[in-house]
Amino acid sequence: MDERAAKTQQETVSDGSDGETHSAWDSVMRLLNPIVCGILLLSLVACGGGGSGSSSVTPEPIADNGGGGDGASDGSSDSTDDSCGVPAQLDFVEQVSQSWYLWFDELAAVDKADFTDPEAYLDALTAPLAADLRDPGFSYLTSISADEARFTSGAYIGFGFRYTITGANQFIMIDVFEGSPAHDAGFRRGWELLAIDLGTGFETMTALRDRGATSEEVFGTSDVGVERLFRLGKADTLLEAVVAKVELDPPALAGEPLLLARPGNSPVAYLNLRQFILSANDPLSSASQTFADAGVTDMVVDLRYNGGGLLSVADNMMDLLGGGVADGALSFQLSHNSQHTEEDANQQGFFNELANTMTPQRIAFITSGSTASASELVINALDPHIEVVLIGADTYGKAVGQYAFDLEQCDVRLRLTAFEIVNGEGQGGYYTGLYDTGRFTLCSAQDDIFNGFGDPQEASLAAAMDWLATGTCQTERSLNVKQSQRATTRGAVPAWWRANTVRPDRLDPTLK
Predict the structure, then answer these.
(1) Which domains does the chain have, with CATH numbers?
(2) What is the overall mean pLDDT for the chain?
(3) DSSP states of 475-504
(4) pTM of the full predicted structure?
């Protein structure tokens, strides 16, 4: 069968940001991975544009959430033509994978005839790479319509908070989006959600967990206007509020950029970037100018929940932080398999000094197992030029990206891991986290969920300030105690209750 995959159109498009026109590569390449928590909490996955079918593929990467299962193809099609049926999809997966998969020569030797589900066939092919965490579900099948819908907006429908479950089974707010209904109702980071009234009186979170209530039952459908009566507590204070879901576009920055005073020295800059989305560019640029005017040489960049985002924003951030010391130097490159090395030379980024570029000498990045993709790219790209340290826990480890290949005339899209991202020194390979590469120092610190972002008493920020003050870690992580960031807690509890389920390749169950 012919290779039915979308050939990217090389037309000129405008990205709408500056009135200039750019090649499709310039515009589309700048999209780097949303971790779809319903928002663009991003992660690094790339895909090609749509277009007519072709026997050759010249894909252009954009980023998505890498999330299988969200609108995934089940092998069916509205088309009565066999070209969209299961056999055609199986052939499509085989042909594209053998050509474009980053580790095509390590695909499992499985018999296509044994499969009636294209998704199961893809999973079987990539199983050896899933086992060693190079591709733990980053390659997947979905529908074109569902996939493209994720790029129309960074918004989602919800109350406006993220949560975590503590070891003591406390249901704690870890981030509440400014301007959201939850924020307006008084919800804040560190408050415990105690009970919810689903319409028949309050039920405690523990009771809801124990009776196996579903996430939809507890929090409602993803529809504007859905209401819940919440009861929260912190210390001796209780809060009860009715909150209704709306369409939200969470602010890219969590709170305002800060200048943290320190005696006898210039202030330390602090900012918390939630998402690499377009709306982050202006506040990042403004913050950089403010920090430069204040004579900042040391800064803390909080990426603890940032799963990735738009490459254009990552590019901008790298220019603002590293353009002064590395102007013109290669910042990143996409590395393909041996069958497509000709793509590499045209898919590079370079540092560029901007008018409001600052010149930090040291940057402490607050990270966690939810720090992925574009976040890891920025840290990895800056490392050869600026002294950096990781504060908190090791990053997720999303060093690869995907292209999207479309089955001609069908609503079937294959997102396939097709390239690795390396920095200007050719360094990548952070498949289980940046620290695991042995190239970074990690000062261990707790994610102090009971204190706000930017609070000097918050444990991770305090550890960052200690490192900036002394140049050493109070507690340095050892490689031999590294634990997988991808472990999940299993058991007879609803999936929405399990800890450590946030992955950059799946819908974020903690976003409500």
Answers:
(1) 5-149 (no CATH), 156-248 (2.30.42.10), 258-332+341-397+422-481 (3.90.226.10)
(2) 80
(3) SB--GGG---TT----SSS-GGG-SS---T
(4) 0.79
With a cut of 70, which residues of the chain have pLDDT below it? 1-81, 148-155, 343-346, 476-492, 498-509
Residue corresponding to tokens 């995907």: 402
Backbone angles phi, psi at 225, to 5 degrees: 100, -15
How far is the CA of 22 from the CAs of 10, 19, 312, 478, 497, in angstroms?
A: 10, 10, 13, 46, 45
What gap in Å lies between CA 142 and CA 186, rounded to an integer?
38
pLDDT of residue 59: 40
Amino acid type, 456: P
C-alpha–C-alpha distance, residues 411 and 407, integer Å: 7
> SS3 string of 129-147?
HHHCCCCCCCCEEECHHHH
**Own/partner pairs, 11-18, CB within 8 angstroms, 24+ separation:** 15/312, 17/278, 17/281, 17/312
CA 507 to chain centre: 10
pLDDT tens digit sequence for 41-90 = 222 333 332 222 222 333 433 333 333 334 444 444 444 457 899 999 99
Residue identified by tokens 């507590």 is 233
